Amino acid sequence: MSTAGGCRYRQAIPPGRRGGRLDADTNSGVRRGFLPRGPRRYEPLRQPTAQQVMVDTISAGPTTMLLLGTLTNAALLLMARPDLRRNVERVYVSGGSVRAPGNLFTAYNANPFAEFNVFGDPFAAYQVLHSGVPVTLVPLDATNTIPVTEEFFAEFGRWWQNTPEARYCFQSLDKVLRRHRRPGPDLHGSTGYYLWDSFAAGVAFSAMRNGEANGGNEFAELEYMNITVITSNEPYGVRDGSNPFFDDRATPKFGLKDGGAHSGHVQTGIRDSFCLVPGSNSGRCQDGYTKEVSGSEGVQVRVATSATPNTDNSSALDREFFKSFLEVLNLPKQAGRFNISTQFPYYREILYKPEFIDESRGRPVIFDMDMSPGDFVSLIYLLKAPREVIDLKGVLVNGNGWANIASIDIVYDILHMMGRDDIPVGLGNTTALGTPTLGCTNAYAVPLGSGGFIDSDTLYGLARSLPRSPRRYTPESSDDPEHRQPLAFEVWQSVKKQLGPGDKITLLTGGPLTNLANISLSDRDARSVIERVYVVGGLITGGGHEKGNVFTVPSNIYAEFNMFLDPLAAKTVIESNLNITLIPLTAQTKAASFGAILEALEQTQQTPESMFVHRIFSLLNELQSKQKLYHHVDIFLGEVLGAVYMVQGSELKSSVKLKPISVIANATKSTDGQIVISKQSTKLVNVLSDFNAEIYYNRLANSLANKKQSAVIGSFEEQMAIWSRPPNNSGPGHTKFL
Fold first, then answer.
1. Measured between alpha carbons, how far is residue 342 from residues 459, 555, 723, 726 in Å?
2. CA spacing 20 to 30 A to 482: which of 179, 243, 460, 519?
3. What is the DSSP letter of 105?
4. Which pLDDT score is estimated for 39?
5. Can you list the alpha helix ranges (DSSP code H) found in 211-317?
6. pLDDT score for 8
7. Distances in Å between the alpha carbon of 718 and those of 463, 711, 724?
8. Residue 189's pLDDT is what?
9. pTM of the predicted structure, to 2 decimals
10. CA 476 → CA 178, 253, 346, 410, distances in Å?
11. In this predicted structure, what is the pLDDT of residue 629?
């Protein structure tokens, strides 16, 4: 999160595939396929904060800071602890653009001046540069002069992979170039990719090794410039609702001066009308521009202007840094110990697929999830359900719910644990229906930190205890278009083609209805092959004191998260002619007792999956009791009701009411996602109104504890033991594919 809060600047970064956050978060699939597994992991409330680590380090003595992303952490430290500035010898910053054009390719029409790292938090960058601490800036001016050439890449691949870290870097670069490469006009053509942060690290290393005072740097030409960071646009002092530091505040945030350089219009998005210039492809906003100025408005900063050519004219490496980069990566001293395949003596990647021999199969089911903790428990439960009752054919995930889309790798791990590597997983949208690919419409309601994305993306720190699946997110590439992550619509089409005569698909949705809405809009025949949709979400008010659960948007009293995160998709699906059963928030609340489910689990026999679910719910219960940031986590417990009701609804002594409902989707945050009873509505929906909670908890616990269809490989610890002994390719009821 930036100092301004929210996703004002972050929305400029594409959230999905093709070079967006999905590829960055997974390192294009290389990370999980290469890096070893260490003992340390993220743990809620125990993970040290960035501020804590920086304070401890800088307090211990003189420190150099190297900043390779947005400058938020450093700015907050220098503002909160000015006494520590004396211990900061110098700050090296990768980012900015002084005399070169900016690189906001997603927002160039609004802002042609900024570079991504500085634009991510302009006010933070301003605070760091104006802190009085010596700063060296490595902006686009310099990094534009060190493109990755085909010659460099070929040299890297041919001769320079002697250490695990060198191989990891090469494979990472290879994945990027497969997606990013543009053919050059001649032998020395650029691939279209640059060593931005690596070069900045090299400049910092050279300066520290040779001494900043001597002025020499073997990798870059540097000069002093008087610069500042633009944080708002003129005219200053005008309140137009765009500036979070001044608008709707009696006192400006951070003690800022009204009418000063920070008090103007702040860019609100990539299509901010204030920034657009009619008839021009170049906008006028300068937020994040590291601008060269005169006088006291700026500060003296040492700026890298270009990369130094290689002094060896006969070398295929045309930059001095290229030579050092490859040499250092391949030094045997301090080299990496191993990768995942060499960490264990008998490491191998195995796919576990069940053998359906003379086994009756139940109704075809697709599970659409947003990868919240409750959804993962639901997935485990569905994998335990008798196959003669339901046949889970596919899993769809979307990235506009409670987890980032890169959490798809956890889905693969769960399927691997349960011996169901045969089930395809489809990648869905990262933004709500009808909204731009770049933006944060309604998704801003999900917390970024504790209790939000950081916990969901790690399954509250427990994801690393799952066995590692050979399957993982793999981006598409120009030279291998078939070997890639399938999309949600492709998985839908595949399942549809497999249907037998008279078969129809049952869907269970555990998150926003984005995927199902897109399927119904893209496939005219979809509704004819869908038997029923079980929708977990929504609030049906019954004249009592029921309230929604979108706690981050206090003005919206009656919406539930799954509906709020994509109101238009909810409206499209629920008001369609699909046969829908709604599992509303009022019903979910009755299934949200940590004490009851934990007691039920403790009274049954244990399986690896029941123990894992017990760990999840125990941890959520503990966090909720200790910290207000986790006050809401019982909503994930209630989400599991949808799966249990779909499979065992007839055993829960449930009652269902038929109600005419409609969904509000009017782009107004105080009402978006609310469900209303409308006599004018022609759409009648089955709404689960009541059930026996005690029976529910017992059915859930007993299903998870059933030894049948239990985990094939229960944990990463068990997987480590397998990788530490010679192969044994036998496996009851499963075919193992090496």
1. 27, 54, 10, 14
2. 519
3. T
4. 92
5. none
6. 77
7. 15, 11, 10
8. 52
9. 0.93
10. 8, 44, 30, 20
11. 93
